[in-house]
Design goal:
By secondary structure, this protein is of the alpha/beta class. 36% of the residues lie in helices and 21% in strands. Strand 2 and strand 3 form a beta hairpin. Helix 14 runs antiparallel to helix 15. The N and C termini lie close together (10 Å). The structure holds 2-deoxy-2-amino glucitol-6-phosphate.
């Protein structure tokens, strides 16, 4: 959950590193640092806090070097201090590195290195990496010493550097994405990955390394996605990809399909606001080219399964984390409702250890915006280890999950920078609705029902625009509710996951305690929380459950609980029952979760703003959870 950028080229590295680091700050923002190889030696600048604080310190230094690395940290081992900030320097001053991940056997390595005279200045696991590389580097006899002793010349500093990194990583247990410099190898960098994302940016007389593409697109759109166990040796003029066991790897250079402006905030106050209002476009992108010619079903090019394969599937298992898990719950509802196929949903972090008995003919899905969430990746690997095919619904092309899945569906929502997921979530809901249609039309959903379903989904972007037009109304509501410190979110069937999502949004960006429940569950305990100080957000359905939900609302009202109702514009609420109402346009049943989500995204956003919270970088969070 940290961000790494490395640069080796002809330009001064510092400004390029800082520009890239700003785009990775959503991955972690406890502290930041950079290291640049200078003609006079190594320049190292670190600071607690945001990249802006680091930029100020760097501006005061004369950083002329053209090779450098930098890092923005989400603390795992060791508190938020300057000493624990990356980059870390070996105690012999030769090796400097940045790391994303967790070294699980760092205590044993540290004990060994202490016996060899290495010293430590931080509480981090990362520092053992740079000292262990330094140890191996020193052990590779230096050429000058060898010649002085009259023995055959030893490998150059460059190959010693690469060898020492490789030997170190063979000792390491855990996860890493690292970029390493050696003070005796100017103009060179070694980077490697295992379990944490790392991407090589291939430029013109320059090469870069970064944790994700957003830090590279301003320099190049040619990228190589490193795989676990690979390491790359970079110079300005080129790079060599290999594996830890010395096998050369032929790089596959991909083209990034979006540009740096997509990752800009534009005129918005926050990335979250931008991404909320981008949803109509993201929803259009999710559907583009994915309906059948006869207009009654959906088509997905990347599932790598034939309709005949789908005929044998008698159960789906969906796993994910956080907001993605809420999307799994909606997928479960829609697939069971329309395709009549059972669906199991599990937290990825639970699935991987539960050793659940599984149907022989189950098909797995993971949902992940970043494609790097380690628990979701581990669940995918566990399903594959058990011999199951696993699909991924993912927003980041070339991400680890996307590459390791047997097939899947890209969301094409564009980069999502805000830590709180918004457009990626509604895109996942729409894709889930399309997938439910796809399998339903292979079973009992009729042509006419399919046509109606497709038309219902095609209407979603414009209906979403109509919901977004209520932003000023929702902002006014938020201004009156921002003082409360407890909320309930209540919904039923496909709106229960949206209640959970609304509660998560409010929790994670405004730090208000909020819980989501099935509306009927309220009587079984949560109603004890109701008071004038604990408002409830109700998702009001149309149809058979309308009266049931109205009853639940009346039970809240009887106890002086405030109510914000999110209701279709085709129903009429009893006078005075809700204190505030946000209406959503009437829509196809499969589209309802998407449209019901937007009001709670806006409500949580405006409440968080009213409370002065850092909406895009909430405390303690990071965008992509790449550590367990
Ligand atoms: C969403 O608002 C949260 N930031 C978080 O729960 C997120 O959904 C979760 O970490 C999964 O991330 P992923 O979709 O990138 O795998």
């Amino acid at each position: 959950m940290c961000g790494i950028v490395g640069y080796v080229g002809r330009q001064r590295a510092a400004s390029i590193l800082l520009e890239g680091l700003k785009r990775l700050e959503y991955r972690g923002y406890d502290s930041a640092g950079l290291a640049v190889l200078q003609p006079g030696g190594l320049a190292l600048v670190k600071s607690v806090g945001r990249v802006a604080a680091l930029s100020k310190l760097a501006a005061a230094r004369k950083l002329t070097g053209t090779t450098g690395i930098c890092h923005t940290r989400w603390a795992t081992h060791g508190g938020v201090t300057e000493a624990n900030a990356h980059p870390h320097l070996s105690s012999d001053g030769r090796i400097v590195l940045v790391h994303n991940g967790v070294i699980e056997n760092y205590i044993a390595i540290k004990k060994f290195l202490l016996t060899k005279g290495y010293t430590f200045t931080s509480e981090t696991d990362t520092e053992v990496l740079c000292n262990l590389i330094a140890y191996h580097y020193a052990k590779e006899t230096a050429p000058a010493a060898a010649q002085a002793a009259g023995v055959n010349p030893q490998p150059s500093e460059s190959s010693r550097f690469l060898t020492s990194v490789r030997k170190t990583l063979l000792h390491v247990e855990g996860t890493y994405g690292i970029a390493v410099l050696c003070t005796e190898c100017p103009g060179e960098m070694v980077a490697a990955r295992k379990g944490s994302p790392l991407i090589l940016g291939v430029g013109d007389q320059e090469n870069l390394i970064a944790s994700d593409v957003s830090a590279l697109v301003s320099r190049t759109q040619s990228v190589v996605y490193l795989k676990d166990g690979e390491l790359v040796h970079l110079t300005a003029g080129g790079f060599a990809l290999s594996t830890l066991d010395l096998a050369d790897v032929s790089p596959v250079i991909d083209k990034v399909t979006w540009d740096v402006n997509d990752a800009e905030m534009g005129a918005h106050a926050h990335f979250m606001e931008k991404e909320i209002f981008e949803q109509p476009t993201a929803l259009e992108n999710a559907m583009r080219g994915r309906f059948s010619a006869d207009g009654s079903s959906a088509n997905f090019g990347g599932l790598n399964l034939t309709p005949a394969d789908f005929r044998t599937i008698d159960r789906f298992v969906f796993t994910s984390c956080g907001t993605g898990w809420h999307a799994c719950l909606v997928a479960e509802h829609l697939i069971e409702r329309f395709a009549r196929i059972p669906v199991e949903v599990d937290y990825a972090s639970e699935f991987r250890y539960r050793n659940a008995p599984l149907d022989r003919d189950a098909l797995f899905f993971v949902i992940s915006q970043s494609g790097e969430t380690i628990d979701t990746l581990a669940a995918l690997r566990e399903a594959k280890r058990k011999g199951y095919k696993c699909m991924a619904i993912c927003n980041v092309v070339g991400s680890t999950i996307a590459r390791e899945a047997d097939g899947g569906i890209y969301q094409h929502a564009g980069p999502e920078i805000g830590v709180a997921s918004t457009k990626a979530f509604t895109s996942q809901l729409l894709i889930s609705a399309m997938f439910a249609l796809y399998v339903a039309r292979m079973r009992d959903l009729s042509f006419a029902e399919g046509i109606e379903y497709v038309n219902g989904l095609k209407a979603v972007p414009d209906l979403a625009r109509r919901v977004l037009e209520q932003a000023p109304h929702i902002k006014e509501i938020a201004s009156r509710y921002s003082k409360y410190n407890d909320f309930l979110f209540l919904g039923r069937l496909s709106l229960f996951p949206i209640a959970l999502e609304g509660a998560l949004k409010l929790k994670e960006i405004s730090y208000i305690h909020a819980e989501g429940y099935p509306a009927a569950e309220m009587k079984h305990g949560p109603i004890a929380l109701i008071s004038p100080e604990c408002p409830s957000v109700f998702f009001v359905p149309k149809g058979e459950l309308f009266n049931k939900v109205i009853s639940s609302m009346q039970e809240i009202k009887a106890r002086k609980g405030l109510i914000i109702a999110i209701a279709p514009d085709c129903v009429e609420l009893p006078e005075g029952l809700a204190d505030d109402v946000i209406t959503i346009p009437d829509c196809h049943e499969a589209a309802l979760p998407v449209l019901a989500t937007i009001p709670v995204q806006l409500l949580s956003y405006y409440i968080a703003c009213a409370r002065g919270c850092d909406v895009d970088k909430p405390r303690n969070l990071a965008k992509s959870v790449t550590v367990e």
